[in-house]
């Protein structure tokens, strides 16, 4: 495990050990936010993302199981976390922490899309901490991915409750090392990371002062928030707004795929038509792939690419003589999906 270099914590030893008055974030903005707004035009514009080398890498000897007392619960693994000290002003009495809760990817993948965090770290003169989720990247228990994913016993430690406890341990460790136990922490995340941020604030309010959850479906579970197809209703709305004819073509395609698949040699025809990695066994394999394509296009429908527009442009741009499946091939040829085999082996 790597410790934080002593020279980085030396300035903080000058700070009084008395309990500091932790500032509360005002829902109305407060004077600090007013000052930012008033002087935005005179401030130097910061780039969307700091260079990756502004982050320093550390490892924490993490507990495998935070909630049980079996012998293997006390096993440990190396959990990676990154710190950006760039914007943290050394002699401020109260130091802000902005913690990103990593999600679904190795930490290296997420570093390229956290411009929002860097910009706010600059404004708040905050320390940035980025903690890698267990079982991803270099934070894998049992020594290797093969061992960690081999069966239900080893995968049993792969859940959000354990991940939240990981984050709490790392945060408490870092604050102790920096002699900054009373510095307020704001946890930030998007999508699943946003869900983690919300849950972290609820479960560990003594560790985090607040949470910012972006696009976080914290209540989107079965039998909690109706309708159950709420996500798909939003995807449908995105495509209808982009093009009504595109929406109608997609709607028609599901029954057309099923009709072809039900015919003799129909699945072979679809496999050949869509250049699948292996022969289709049922029509749902193809439909699930297309479903995923549409959902990803809607979820990440942002400039400059606007993937929903790209998909609908390919569908609407096909000649009127082309059948629905031919239009789909044009869609696939105009997306980056075609750089790989179109269908992977389902689990």
Automatic annotation (TrEMBL):
<keyword id="KW-0325">Glycoprotein</keyword>
<dbReference type="InterPro" id="IPR008758">
    <property type="entry name" value="Peptidase_S28"/>
</dbReference>
<dbReference type="GO" id="GO:0008239">
    <property type="term" value="F:dipeptidyl-peptidase activity"/>
</dbReference>
<keyword id="KW-0378">Hydrolase</keyword>
<keyword id="KW-0732">Signal</keyword>
<keyword id="KW-0645">Protease</keyword>
<dbReference type="InterPro" id="IPR029058">
    <property type="entry name" value="AB_hydrolase_fold"/>
</dbReference>
<protein>
    <submittedName>
        <fullName>Serine carboxypeptidase S28 family protein</fullName>
    </submittedName>
</protein>
<keyword id="KW-0121">Carboxypeptidase</keyword>
<dbReference type="GO" id="GO:0006508">
    <property type="term" value="P:proteolysis"/>
</dbReference>
<dbReference type="GO" id="GO:0070008">
    <property type="term" value="F:serine-type exopeptidase activity"/>
</dbReference>
<dbReference type="GO" id="GO:0004180">
    <property type="term" value="F:carboxypeptidase activity"/>
</dbReference>
<comment type="similarity">
    <text>Belongs to the peptidase S28 family.</text>
</comment>
<dbReference type="Pfam" id="PF05577">
    <property type="entry name" value="Peptidase_S28"/>
</dbReference>
């Amino acid at each position: 495990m790597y410790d934080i270099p002593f020279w980085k914590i030396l300035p903080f030893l000058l700070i009084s050990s008395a309990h500091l008055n932790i500032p509360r974030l005002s829902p109305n903005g407060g004077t600090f936010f007013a000052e930012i707004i008033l002087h935005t035009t005179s401030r130097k514009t910061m780039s969307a993302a700091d260079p990756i080398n502004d982050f320093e890498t550390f490892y924490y000897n993490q507990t495998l199981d935070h909630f049980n007392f079996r012998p293997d619960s006390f096993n440990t693994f190396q959990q990676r976390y990154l710190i950006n000290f760039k914007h943290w002003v050394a002699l401020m009495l109260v130091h802000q922490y902005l913690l990103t809760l990593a999600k679904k990817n190795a930490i290296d993948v997420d570093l390229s899309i956290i411009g929002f965090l860097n910009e706010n770290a600059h404004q708040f003169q905050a320390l940035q901490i980025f903690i890698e989720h267990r079982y991803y990247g270099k934070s894998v228990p049992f020594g290797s991915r093969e061992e960690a994913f081999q069966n239900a016993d080893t995968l049993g430690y792969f859940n959000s409750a354990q991940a939240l406890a990981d984050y709490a341990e790392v945060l408490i460790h870092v604050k102790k090392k920096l002699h900054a136990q009373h510095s307020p922490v704001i946890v930030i995340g998007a999508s699943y990371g946003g869900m983690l941020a919300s849950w972290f604030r609820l479960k560990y309010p003594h560790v985090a002062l607040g949470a910012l959850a972006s696009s976080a479906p914290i209540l989107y579970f079965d039998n909690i928030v109706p309708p159950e197809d709420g996500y798909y209703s939003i995807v449908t709305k995105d495509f209808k707004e982009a093009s009504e004819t595109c929406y109608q073509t997609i709607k028609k395609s599901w029954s057309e795929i099923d009709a072809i698949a039900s015919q003799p040699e129909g699945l072979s025809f679809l496999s050949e038509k869509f250049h699948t990695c292996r022969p289709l066994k049922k029509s749902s394999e193809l439909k699930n792939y297309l479903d995923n394509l549409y959902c990803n296009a809607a979820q990440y429908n942002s400039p400059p690419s606007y993937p929903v527009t790209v998909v609908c442009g390919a569908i609407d741009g096909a000649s009127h003589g082309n059948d629905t499946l031919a239009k789909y091939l044009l869609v696939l040829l105009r997306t980056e999906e075609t750089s790989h085999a179109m269908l992977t082996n389902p689990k």
